[in-house]
Design brief:
The chain is built from 8 helices and 21 strands. It is α+β, with helices and mostly antiparallel strands and about 425 residues long. The chain folds into 3 domains: about 1-80, Nucleic acid-binding proteins (OB fold (Dihydrolipoamide Acetyltransferase, E2P), Beta Barrel); about 105-130 and about 240-420, Vaccinia Virus protein VP39 (Rossmann fold), CATH 3.40.50; about 140-220, no CATH class. It has a 7-stranded mixed sheet, with helices on both faces. The chain has a 5-stranded mixed barrel with strand order 1-2-3-5-4. Strands 9-8-7-10 form a 4-stranded antiparallel sheet, with no helix packed on it. A hairpin with a 4-residue loop joins strand 1 (about 20-25) and strand 2.
Length: about 425
């Protein structure tokens, strides 16, 4: 009999109880969703339409989790994973699913978040596929634990469902060929030369200049007609094969209403601001990181984007150095996974940009923020997802919002009244 895990909740199923389940959906995390007499059971690596034998390993207050022990009746869109570690390594969720089906289920997930969280029924466009379904990822960060008896154990990624156990990964099929070639070299080096008592996290970043393992190295990436310098360890999109198309779409949406000015919030190293600069009279990028502002300024000079200015914005006064009228401005918003914070949203609503292009890597936080924009005078025009992360559950979304005419009129009237009575 299997040993009962600590704090195991015994209802509604026993530990390792087996069930025969019909999968009817996919969760946002890529697990199959089944209902057993109304009770929800999540089964990773099971697909909609399949009948599976599943074994319970955890009960929660309103659902359970189970391992897929056997696929009794496979779905038509089930395919053979390319990685022998699929199902053990936690990095990919969809290698067993036909690529066209991956795209459709990701689109449905975005639509579900918009409807369920934001109450928005805007149609989500077809997901733009990646030119490469494998060998696309330009950055890997393998981990390893501290040596035991002087020996380095697994070097790789966390085991599926674990926050501690590492799976040894010799090659990663979603990484570029250059990254995989360097991965073997750095694994051999760590095993032969690591002299520290603690573990660590490695970096492999593939750029125009080759693969670097130094997170502080300055590297370069070509995106469309522009080139960008950034630190190898900093955030930069990892799928360079689809990135130019995504940037072109963001630029097209930002320029669609013919606004004169551009504000790029959360601008980082200036990717969107510089890429779109030639379509605007003046552009300003706002960042709360001084290092990012310096990097963006250097990128603007390198690309001769003379109409771009980058400023350090504090949380309390993000738009303090923006001299443009919101009615004449388009704004690009590209926040971290957690979405926009309340202080930013409050200031963004007060600024009142006519067009907002929101770039998001998390449909749930995107939906939450879009609900706030909708409640403050904006209409969601459309949403276009880009599959920057094939074989995984992740999806990048571009949402375009326009300000209601009535909201703009009220704001302009208020501004005029303040001007008349203030000075």
């Amino acid at each position: 009999m299997a040993q009962l895990p600590k704090n195991f909740r015994p209802e509604p199923y026993d530990y390792h109880q087996e069930l025969t389940l019909k999968i009817d959906n996919l969760s946002g995390h890529g697990a199959g969703v089944a209902r057993d007499n109304g009770w929800v059971v999540f089964v990773p690596h099971a697909l909609p339409g399949e009948t599976v034998r599943a074994r319970i390993f955890r009960n929660h207050k309103n659902h359970s989790e189970a391992d897929c022990m056997e696929v009794i009746a496979p779905a038509a869109d089930r395919v053979e994973p390319e990685c022998r570690l699929f199902g053990k390594c936690g990095g990919c969720q969809y290698q067993h699913l036909d690529y066209d089906s991956q795209l459709e289920w990701k689109r449905r997930h975005v639509a579900d978040c918009l409807s369920r969280i934001a109450g928005l029924d805007t149609a989500v466009e077809t997901v733009v596929p990646s030119p490469r379904r494998y060998a696309y990822r330009s950055k890997l960060t393998p981990h390893f634990d501290r040596p035991r008896d002087g020996v380095i154990g697994p070097i790789g990624f966390l085991k599926r469902g674990s926050s501690r156990h590492i799976i040894d990964v010799e090659q990663c099929p979603i990484a570029t060929d250059a990254v995989n070639a360097e991965l073997k070299t750095i694994r051999d080096y760590i095993r032969s030369s690591w002299g520290k008592r603690q573990g660590g996290t490695l970096l492999l970043r593939d750029t125009d200049e080759g693969v670097t393992t130094n997170p502080n190295a300055t590297v370069m990436e070509q995106v469309g007609e522009a080139r960008f310098r950034f630190k190898a360890g900093d955030f930069f999109q990892n799928n360079s094969f689809l990135l130019p198309e995504m940037v072109a779409h963001v630029t097209a949406q930002a320029t669609a209403e013919g606004q004169r000015f551009l504000v790029d919030a959360y601008c980082g190293g200036g990717l969107f601001c510089i890429s779109a600069a030639r379509h605007f009279e003046q552009c300003v990028g706002i960042e709360i990181s001084a290092d990012a502002v310096k990097l963006a300024q250097g990128n603007a000079e390198f690309n001769e984007a003379k109409n771009c200015t980058f400023v350090l914005g504090t949380a309390a006064e993000i738009f303090g150095r923006v001299d443009y009228s919101g009615a004449e401005t388009a704004m690009i918003v590209d926040p971290p996974r957690k979405g926009c914070d309340d202080e930013f949203l409050k200031q963004a609503f007060a600024f009142g940009a006519q067009t907002i292009v929101y770039v998001s890597c998390d449909p749930a936080t995107l939906a939450r923020d879009l609900k706030a924009f909708a409640e403050n005078g904006y209409e969601l025009a459309h949403v276009k997802p880009f599959d920057m992360f094939p074989q995984t559950r992740h999806i990048e979304c571009i949402a375009t919002l326009t300000r209601n005419v009535s909201s703009r009129h009220v704001s302009e009237t208020t501004n005029n009244t303040n001007d008349a009575n203030g000075d």
